[in-house]
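We emphasize that the prediction below concerns an isolated chain of 389 residues; any contacts that depend on oligomerization or on bound cofactors are therefore not represented. The input was used exactly as deposited, without trimming of termini.
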Amino acid sequence: MSTATLDRTFSQARNEAAESSATVVKVLHVINGEHYAGAERVQDLLALRLHDLGFRVGFACLKQGVFARMRTSKRAPVHLIAMRNRFDLGPVWQLAGIVRSEGYQLIHAHTPRTALIAACVSLLTGVPMVSHVHSPVARDTTHRVRNWLNLVAERMAMIRASALVAVSESLGRSIGSGAARDHRVNVVHNGVPASAVPRRGAPPRFDWTIGTVALFRPRKGLEVLLHSLAKLRALGFSVRLRAVGCFETQEYEAQVKALAHRLGIEQHVDWVGFTEHVEAELSRMDLFVLPSLFGEGMPMVVLEAMAAGVPVVATRVEGIPEAIRNGVDGLIAEAGNPDDLARAVGSIIRGDVDYVAMRRNAQRRHAERFSDRAMAEGVARVYRRVLGS
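Result of the prediction step, given as a token string:
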């Protein structure tokens, strides 16, 4: 969607913000910055939408990467701060200087690493801090030690946070010690813009393209999807997979492609790689599949598929069932189960469910619950509560 279209869409919000406040609040988002995936998409969209609600966003990136180049929020300044490792506290003093010199009134962190740095900056400057929880850090990777370190960092940072933002109800319940939910927790679902070219028409009669979009790493369940694809083809379904995204490591890429070769389906998989144009890729898919095993807060790409009118099959992982109502907006399969995933995909291809109704339901649910405007307004309410207190 063009900047001009976005400006027209949010002109009313700008007018409301101007009427309610004569000043603009400056917020520094402290992020990792090496990737441009789901969480980074949230950060980018917030910078765009919060500008229309009376907040001016700046970014501090603690890692070298593609975010500064890929972001669409070009009006937001970016401060590149080199953090050598997760134990390097050198950026604290640099960021404290930036907060003071640039007049930032709020600090917003998005990962355990950035939350710990932001908490120290908040302590030095007296500027309040908000921590955004995008995924369950205790189950975020297959590396137990890394998960434990991230969990410790997150818990330490939360002590300083004035408010916590969870992207799903399941994450909101998990924050804290497991007792009653922390009173500082605010659930703000992720959101994406409406699609400029939503899918229309009937499903294909014969050849189906199922697609997936992700930063491919073990928890995304790509191996499960490949096994399901092999099962579907063995049952006589004419399907191919369009895999959009880059791999976390070259070693993992080699493992996955070797599996496709062993299963005899390599000629039925298109490895697209990373793209800036996810919406265009979704338009090439008849069905979107996210076979995640764990670690999903509220996947942005599921919301993008809903907005684009591409029916979704996803797994019962954390916040996914909060977006997809099984049998209404899409289908839910059991995580890590190739047979169940193949069953769900096959039921759509056979016509056991109403493809057109499911697509329309998903688009309606996105507009009502998971728009980028709703996300920005939810975060803006948290900001106002923190600053007002």
